[in-house]
Design a protein that fits this description.
The chain is built from eleven helices and ten strands. With about 290 residues, the chain is an alpha+beta fold. The chain is globular, with a radius of gyration of 19 Å.
C-alpha cells in the first residue's frame, strides 16, 4: 500500500486533473478527498476492496484516507478534483454528516441526472477558476468545493431520512448534533468530556451518547480523537513546532496516545506525515 503525495500546482489544498491520468494505478491512499467525473464508459475503480464501474456522467467519490485503486481507466475517460480533508473537517455541518457522506461513493447519472450534472458543472467551474488571474481565486475554487459537498450532503441525508421512515433525522435532533460537533471542535484542545458536552447540549449523558452515535456513527471518544488529529495535521505544517508541541497543542494528553491514534487515522506517524508534507511542498514549488 502506497500513500500518494498530492501535488498542488495552482491552489493550496485543491487540484484539478484531466491530463496524463494513468489507466491503472496501484492501491494507495491520501488524506485528500478525490471526486471523479466519468467521461466514458469502461472505468473501473476499487474503493476499500469494493469494485465500482461508473458510466459516462456518473460521479465517484473517494473520501479522505480511503484505500483505492485504478483498475482500468480509458484514455481521457475521467477528470477529477482532489481537495484537503480540512474543507470537510473544519466545518461542523459537514463533519457532523461526514459518516453518512463517507458511505456514499457513487452517484449514477441515470438515477440522479440533475445532481450528477450539477456536480460535473461545478467541477469544471473549478477548472475555470484555476485558470483565472483574479483576486481570491483560491477561495472561489474552495467555495465551489463547498457547493459540491452541500449537494452530496443534502442528497445523502434525504436518502437516510427516506430509508428510515421514522423521522429520526429531525431538524431539532440535527441541531443538537451540530451544536455538539461545533462545541467539540471549539474546545477540542481542552480536557473535555462527554458529560460536559451533553450538559452543554441540554441532554442527559445517556441520551446524548445514543443520539451522537446514531447521527455520527462514531463514539464521542473516537470523534474527539479525529478532531484532535486534524488539529495536529494543521500544526504539523509549522515546522518550527516540535512533534511533542503539536501533540499537546492539538489536545492530546500524552505523546504515546498521540502517536498511536495519529497512525491509526492517517496510516503514518506524525514525523512521517511531516516529511511527506514537506516533500509535497517542494514538489509544488518545482
Amino acid at each position: 500500500m502506497e500513500r500518494e503525495i498530492i501535488k498542488y500546482q495552482r491552489f493550496h489544498g485543491l487540484a484539478f486533473t484531466e491530463k496524463n491520468i494513468p489507466n491503472v494505478f496501484p492501491q494507495h491512499w491520501h488524506n485528500e478527498a478525490e471526486f471523479i467525473v466519468a467521461l466514458k464508459n469502461g472505468c473501473k475503480y476499487k474503493i476499500d476492496g469494493k469494485l465500482y464501474e461508473p458510466k459516462a456522467g456518473d460521479i465517484l467519490m473517494v473520501w479522505p484516507r480511503e484505500l483505492h485503486e485504478l483498475i482500468d481507466i480509458p484514455k481521457n475517460g475521467v477528470v477529477f478534483i482532489q481537495f484537503s480533508s480540512y474543507l470537510i473537517e473544519s466545518n461542523s455541518d459537514f463533519l457532523a454528516a461526514s459518516q453518512f457522506m463517507y458511505d456514499c461513493h457513487l452517484i449514477k447519472k441515470k438515477d440522479n441526472p440533475e445532481l450528477a450534472q450539477k456536480i460535473k458543472d461545478l467541477v469544471y467551474k473549478i477548472k475555470e477558476t484555476r485558470a483565472q488571474k483574479i483576486f481570491f481565486a483560491e477561495s472561489r475554487g474552495k467555495l465551489l468545493v463547498y457547493e459540491i459537498l452541500f449537494l452530496i450532503g443534502e442528497f445523502v441525508l434525504k436518502a437516510q431520512q427516506k430509508n428510515t421512515g421514522q423521522g429520526i433525522y429531525l431538524d431539532k435532533f440535527w441541531d443538537y448534533i451540530r451544536f455538539a460537533c461545533s462545541y467539540i471542535a471549539e474546545h477540542s484542545t481542552e480536557d473535555i468530556s462527554q458529560s460536559e458536552v451533553a450538559e452543554k447540549t441540554g441532554l442527559s449523558q445517556y441520551y446524548f451518547s445514543k443520539l451522537f452515535n446514531e447521527y455520527t456513527k462514531m463514539s464521542f471518544p473516537s470523534y474527539l480523537a479525529s478532531i484532535r488529529v486534524q488539529n495536529a495535521i494543521n500544526l504539523l505544517e509549522n515546522e518550527r513546532l516540535s512533534i511533542t508541541e503539536c501533540a499537546y497543542e492539538s489536545g492530546f494528553q500524552s505523546t504515546t496516545t498521540f502517536n498511536k491514534i495519529f497512525h491509526e487515522q492517517t496510516g503514518c506517524s506524525p514525523r512521517e506525515y511531516r516529511r511527506l508534507r514537506s516533500q509535497n511542498k517542494e514538489m509544488a514549488a518545482e
